[in-house]
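Batch job 17 of 40 flagged for manual review because the log was empty.
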Amino acid sequence: MHSLPQWRTATVVCAALSSHMTSHVRVCSLARIAAREFVPNCASVCCFGRRLQFQGRGGGGGGGVTGCGAVDRFAPRASTEGVAAMASIATVQVETEPDSDVTFAVGCRVSSSSFLLAPQDKPVRKKVAPGPGYGQTKLGRPTTGELEVGGFSIEGVSVGGQETCVMLPALKVAFDSGRCPGRIIDMDYVFITHAHMDHIGGLTMYIASRGLKKKKVPTVIVPKCIKATVEKLLAVQRELDESPLPVNLIGMDIGEEFDLGKGLIVKAFKTYHVVPSQGYVIYTVKQKLKAEHVGLPGKEIKALRESGVEVSETVRISEVAFTGDTTSGFFLDEANEDVLHAKLLIMESTFLDDSTSVEDANKYGHMHLFEVLAHADKFKNKDILFIHFSARYQQEDICKAIENIPAPLQGRVHALTEGF
C-alpha cells in the first residue's frame, strides 16, 4: 500500500486470467478496484479506453479526491496451468486537499467490458461440427467470433441493438458493417440490409480503413431506396475527414442481382422490419446436363451439341441466405422459397423466451423463437445460424434455448454468441 499526499504518482497493477492461451482480455472499468482499498471512504473508478478516471472522498481529513491516468497495453504471460496471465500497469496522478492522504491498492479486480486494451490480430479458431447445439470462440470485441457450420466458415459479431456484422471470409463478403470490427477490413464486398446504426454505423470507417491500408476500392451494396442518403452520409464524412473515401456504392432493389464472379450470384429478397430492409441470398450457378440426355454416351452428347441442340441447362443452388432484421413475414412470403432452401440460413432470433411476447417482438420488427418453432416445417435448410439475440440474454440463456429446440429443427440450429 502506498500513501500519496497532494499531487503524487502511483502505479496500480491490474491482472486477469483468460482460458485461451493466446487470447487477450479486456478490462471493465479498469477497476471496480475495491473502492475501500483504493480510496478511503468509497471512491468510484471508471476506465474509458486507455484513460483511467476516479473520484471519491479523501482520508481522515475528508478532502476531495480526483485523478486520471494512462493504461498500458496488456502483455500475455503463459502460466504452468495452461492459461495466459494478463497484466497492465496504470500510472495515476492524484490531487487531494493539503491535509488528505490517499491509499492505493497494488492489486485490483477485473471483469468483462466493451473496451479492448490489447488488440488481437487473429481470432482463435474453434471448429464446430454440424450437429446438436451451438459453438464458437468467445473473444473480445472488436475481434470477432469464428465458427464453422455446415461446411461454411463464418466470422462475426451480432448483439441486438448494439452491433451486427457477419462475414464469409472465403468469399470476402460481409453482411452489414456493425461498428467496423477489425476483420471486416479484409472483406471486398459489404451487403447492407438496412440503415439502423447497429448495422450500418461502421460503414464509413470500413471504407476509410480500406483506403488507409491501400486495399482495392470496396463494393458496398445497399437497398436502392437509401442509396441517395448513404451518398449524403459519405459526402459529409469526406468533408469532415478531408479524404476521398473511395467506394463503389450500388443500390439494389428486391429481386435484383449482383454478380460476385466465379459462378456466384447474390440476390436481394424482401424482409419485414420497421424501416426499409432486405436480405440477401448467394447462389452458385452451374451448367448441368439436361435430364433427357443423362446416361447418353459422350460421343452422342458431343454430336448433339455440334448439331445445335442445347444439351445442358443453367442450374442455381441457394448456398447462403442472410436475413438481417425482420419479422416472421420473411418466411411466410412465398417469394422467399429459395431462402428457406438455402444450405445455410443466417437469421435473426432476437427473443427466445416468454419474457417478451411474439406480438411485442413483431411490433419492433423482430422475430421470436416461438414463431420459428411454430413454423419449423417451412425451414428446409440443412443448417440454421441464429444471430441478433437481445442484449438482455446471457450466453448460457442462448445456449440452453438452442439445446432445447425440438425436432424437426433439433441438431440443425446453431448460435453466434460473440458479444455475450
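Reviewer: the log was empty due to a logging misconfiguration, but the result itself is present. Residues 2-104 form one domain. Unflagging and moving on to job 18.
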